[in-house]
Amino acid sequence: MTARVFVVDGHPLFRAGVRQVVEDAADLEMAGEATTGEEAVAALRDGHVVADVVLMDLLLPGCSGIEATRAIVAAAPAEPGAPRVLFVSGSAEDDAVVAALRAGARGYLVKGVVGEELVRGLRTVAQGGAVFSAAVADRLGCYFSAVHELPVRAAFPDLTEREREVLDLVARGLSNRRIARELALSEKTVRNHVSRVFAKLRVADRVEAAVRARDAGLGT
């Protein structure tokens, strides 16, 4: 099945490059182009353009790519054949990527990707998948790991990084011997860590410590 691509970007040279890449792919075709978010929303929402994938830039004159994506997705949130948005932007900042995903985008590529990668991305998103440039995927992994760590650190501000690791393993039901093996420590060192964790959390035993830890998101 041929996937129809609609490009939203303010730079004519970029649009021309995408047009050439799409026209060279046997299973892709151009559905149209827009230079602003407002143009894109009007064309897609009013039915003037039928597209499977919207290739969206982040920084557009007037309505931003994020705002345009939100409007496009809201117009047909769960309808079969609704256009799916794939960002191609010069920015790979965490906030931009997360904002795009929250707006409903199915992927995020960094400008400068080779034609083959762009074609693969368009095909993947057209088929209902998600795609990210390698650099974006790495940053997302770090971002969400950091986001996960924030509530844990807030819940147990007195614990050291090692003590949080030990508490996590206690919450998973591991014995001191298993924890020692996991962290490459002696059992005596683990016992000392566990004792300090109990004292700092003011708990009496492993069960109570595990309950506190799981409430904060550890041990999963």
Kindly describe this structure.
One of its GO terms (molecular function) is DNA binding. This is Response regulator. Keywords: DNA-binding, Phosphoprotein, Transcription, Transcription regulation. This protein is an alpha/beta fold and 220 residues long. The chain folds into two domains: 3-135, 3-Layer(aba) Sandwich (Rossmann fold); 156-216, Arc Repressor Mutant, subunit A (Orthogonal Bundle). It is built from ten helices and six strands. The chain has a six-stranded parallel beta sheet with strand order 2-1-3-4-5-6, sandwiched between helices. Strand 4 (84-89), helix 4 (94-103) and strand 5 (107-110) form a beta-alpha-beta unit. Helix 7 (161-171) crosses helix 9. The radius of gyration is 24 Å and the shape is elongated. The mean pLDDT is 85.
